[in-house]
Amino acid sequence: MAGLSKVIRVVSSTFGELPIKADGGTFKPSGHKRETQDAEQPENTGYVETPTHAELKLKLNASVDPQTLDTSDDTLTIFTADGHQHVMPNAWSVDMGELGKGEFDVEFHSAKSQKLA
Question: Structure pTM?
Answer without folding.
Answer: 0.85
